[in-house]
Amino acid sequence: MPRSSNVSETSAEAEAAPGDWRQIEPIALPGTLAAAKDAFHDRGFHGTSIRDIAARAGVSLPTLYYHHENKQGILVALLEAGMSSVLGRVRAAISDATTPPEQLSNAVEAIVLHMTADLELASVARELRYLDHDNPHRQHYVGMRTEVEDLLEDILRRGIDSGDFQIEGDVKESLRYLLGACQEVTTWYHPSGTRSPAEVAGSYAVTSLHAVGARPSTQPGTSTRTTPRS
Amino acid sequence: MPRSSNVSETSAEAEAAPGDWRQIEPIALPGTLAAAKDAFHDRGFHGTSIRDIAARAGVSLPTLYYHHENKQGILVALLEAGMSSVLGRVRAAISDATTPPEQLSNAVEAIVLHMTADLELASVARELRYLDHDNPHRQHYVGMRTEVEDLLEDILRRGIDSGDFQIEGDVKESLRYLLGACQEVTTWYHPSGTRSPAEVAGSYAVTSLHAVGARPSTQPGTSTRTTPRS
Lengths: 230, 230
Hints:
Two copies of one chain form a homodimer. With 230 residues, chain A is mostly helical. Helices cover 63% and strands 0% of the residues of chain A. Chain A is built from eleven helices and no strands. The longest helix of chain A is centred in the middle third of the chain and has 25 residues, at 71-95. The A-B interface holds A 43-48, 126, 130, 166, 168-170, 173-174, 176-185, 187-188, 195, 200, 203-204, 206-208, 210-213, 222, 225-226 and B 43-48, 126, 130, 166, 168-170, 173-174, 176-185, 187-188, 195, 200, 203-204, 206-208, 210-213, 222, 226.
């Protein structure tokens, strides 16, 4: 029961609507998950107790245990909320374009917008290493992450075949490079800084196109990409 | 006294010898710091007690407190050991080249080799957010990190001036992109995998040159860069 409750508690909010992949608002999370997200961000998974989470959420331990089997279950729910959101964004962003350069640009933009929309939720992805390896939900989470990677790898391979991209080395390693750069946005981006989410997302899309050796003529909208879209 | 002991305990090992910037061995750390590094990696800063560190190191609490004022002091010593190592490598790598593309290639290679040489030590950099903002050593650490960033920014700006690099947007954001990609190596690299540190470092150097719009003719040694050097 607790595990199925996890899923039903988060699934409604987690999937981005197809046309909404450029939205910059954080995902709405139930109170206990929002509290856990803050706690994990402030003190890490092992530095947070289930009592800390209940206290931050202002709920009793029995209420918290009604929804989540244990702290691992809460971590799973947060990881899945973040990953299903980015997967939904990336799918929609790719559908919104046709050529490999446009699709890569959109996909990178979608990932960076996911990072900046909720820095704390995006940072929780780093806590995956604390999820038990035999946790039955681990496979589902890793499956979603693999789907994101596969979608991008497919774009890179189609772009190489079409002559749009020039990647000399290992395609998967180029992909890790791109995704790593995007993931690290959570460590330096501040909403109060001078750069808007759309500006960062646009400039990361352009840099990613360069990184995979996109010919300048194939780079979509580079002249306007560093301008906020909305 | 404890803080000056921190420094003397680590400084001898921390600075890479100038000619050694391509070495792939982990930094030798005193036993207590090696134990703390493992503990922080396994459970995070707040998930680790000073007793855990003493137990892992096989020393008494008084012995540990003789060298380090508290857990924050241990974190400082680890952060400084990692950062002074990468700073030493980057300085030496840049001195070992003349043109901006060669220097960028060397610098990225040096940073990735730092990451792969000791994944756990390199990961400790993420724990900076748990270092008290009024810790007197924070400024020294951040100063070293800023020096690494400034060295790379200087290369990018000289490369733009010389026409070697084509960066359309913000130079600092391009730099964050490169450094982020390198930092994330710690999250996916496994020494037991198919890629050697030199191979990953070489391919990251090539991808970084692409990312900053290096003209193919200016990219040093790209045809051999994915081959291990030693």
